[in-house]
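Continuing the batch. This is chain 6 of the set; chains 1 through 5 are on the previous pages. Same settings as before, nothing changed between runs. Recording input and output for traceability.
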Amino acid sequence: MDMVSGEEKTVYEGMPLYKLSTTHFVSFYDGNMVVNVTDNLSGSDHVKRYRYVFMPETGELVENTLRANISGMEDFVNIYASTDDYYLVAHNTVNYPLTLVDNAGVPYTVEASENQYALIAKADYWNSVPNYIPIVDE
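Output for chain 6:
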């Protein structure tokens, strides 16, 4: 809907929505609308997750197939920040031992994880090309 005139316009028909309650409108980045859709109509054993991008300039709806390994689970590659040419994304996590101290002063170790961040060219992100430029913490 045009917020000024109130005119309604269909910008795309045919987005695969399995149920509206399983559709999550993520955000807009550089004019492109990112939508996560979950297909749970086949039952809980066959849940499938998709990320679609609607590109208003071309009228295209494309599936974004970039996936990240976040704490051992497959997830979408999310955008955290951008420059003119690149997005900052988390494309993986790394686990490491972390020593903590309890209230009695006794140390103990837990497994912690942290995101591995990278830059990806905007065109690569929109075309699902995993050409990550890792950010190295030295």
